[in-house]
Amino acid sequence: MKSLAELQAIRDKMKGAINMREENGDKIRVVVGMATCGIAAGARPVLNKFTEEVAKRNLLNVSVTQTGCIGICQYEPVVEVFTPDGKKTTYVKMTPEKAVKVVADHLVNGNVVSEYTIGSVAK
Amino acid sequence: MPEVSLNVLDIVQNSVKANASLIEITILKNTQTKTLSVSIKDNGCGMTDEQVSRVIDPFYTTRTTRKVGLGVPFFKLSAELTGGSFSIESKVNVGTTVCAVYCYEHIDMMPLGDMAATMVSLVSVNPSIDFCYTYAVDDRSFTLDTREVRTILEGVPLNEPPVLSFISDFIKENEAELLKENEE
């Protein structure tokens, strides 16, 4: 059974790593829509997959956050990616599988996954 | 919503919007009365009596992007479909408590679902808010209180991946233990 004592070990291991993260300036922001429409459409596994993948690849320059309803409920789960160059990409009808590809192609390699964007889905 | 835990995630968003610093989520399963009560209590900005009376109306919302607000109506409906009940109490500058009671043997009862995933989602995007999650089956229970976690972590953020995976495992293991003993 897990006990809170295990957290002490995590704390001791993490303390050194945190400082590294703070020095990282240029951030990519991944914003997942978590209003009623998003949650009902499956935003929770999408959000958790992004968090998991970003952690697995140790992407110190990426933060995963949430927002409310942005008004395009029919395209939920919606994920917006803001890159340091000021660009915003809107991915729609996301799934955990698509999230893995967005992390690998867009967040790591800088290539927008065009087929998942609102521009190619909303025709 | 296919799971009660998704309703919880949705309702807690209201508490986050209300600038709560502490959100208490309590699930009580009573095997005598065959009820599952789910309550979400926050210390956010609260609502006026007028707002409380309108919040169960699907055509009432504070957001500006759409004209409907379905979070509370969905939660209420899901409980009432099982023959249960729903209540909401709020006081301006004190906070809001939302409580849904389900009759869990009813055919329209949804599964509780993945509460670990709900808590991980909430903590990962709201690392500065404290959550106190309790799951009780009759007189046995477990609690995950991020205030305790925060004290032990001494400044390490709650949304660090190893902390999130600890929270997920902690909830899953304790929940399994609680339900196992219940069957014996």
Give the strand tally of chain A: 4
Task: Tell me the name of the CATH homologous superfamily of chain B.
Answer: Histidine kinase-like ATPase, C-terminal domain
Low-pLDDT residue spans of chain A: none
- Count of individual helical segments of chain A: 5
Largest interface: A-B, 35 and 39 residues
Globally, the shape of chain B reads: globular
Task: Report how far the terminal alpha carbons of chain A are from each other.
Answer: 51 Å
Annotation field: number of helices of chain B: 6
What is the topological layout?
The complex is a heterodimer of chains A (123) and B (184).
Chain A: H1 6-22, E1 28-33, H2 36-41, H3 43-56, E2 62-67, E3 79-82, E4 88-91, H4 96-108, H5 118-121
Helix pairs in contact in A: 3-4
Chain B: H1 4-17, E1 22-30, E2 35-42, H2 49-54, H3 71-80, E3 85-91, E4 95-103, H4 115-125, E5 130-137, E6 140-145, H5 146-153, H6 161-183
Parallel strand pairs in B: 1-5
Antiparallel strand pairs in B: 1-2, 2-4, 3-4, 5-6
Protein model, in words:
The complex is a heterodimer of chains A (123) and B (184). Chain A is α+β, with helices and mostly antiparallel strands. Chain A has one domain (24-121): 3-Layer(aba) Sandwich (Glutaredoxin), CATH 3.40.30.10. Chain A contains five helices and four strands. Chain A has helices at residues 6-22, 36-41, 43-56, 96-108, 118-121, and strands at 28-33, 62-67, 79-82, 88-91. Chain A has a four-stranded mixed β-sheet with strand order 2-1-3-4. In chain A, helix 3 (43-56) crosses helix 4 (96-108). The mean pLDDT of chain A is 89. Chain B is α+β, with helices and mostly antiparallel strands. Chain B has a single domain (4-183), classed as 2-Layer Sandwich (Heat Shock Protein 90). Chain B has six helices and six strands, in the order H-E-E-H-H-E-E-H-E-E-H-H. Chain B has helices at 4-17, 49-54, 71-80, 115-125, 146-153, 161-183; strands at 22-30, 35-42, 85-91, 95-103, 130-137, 140-145. In chain B, strands 3-4-2-1-5-6 form a six-stranded mixed β-sheet. In chain B, strand 5 and strand 6 form a beta hairpin. The longest helix of chain B has 23 residues, at 161-183. Chain A binds chain B through residues 1-2, 4, 6-8, 10-11, 13-15, 17-18, 32, 34-37, 39-40, 44-45, 47-48, 51-52, 55, 64-66, 68-71, 73, and chain B through 1, 6, 9-10, 13, 17, 63, 65-66, 69-71, 74, 117-118, 120-121, 124-125, 148-149, 152-157, 159-164, 166, 169-170, 173-174, 177.
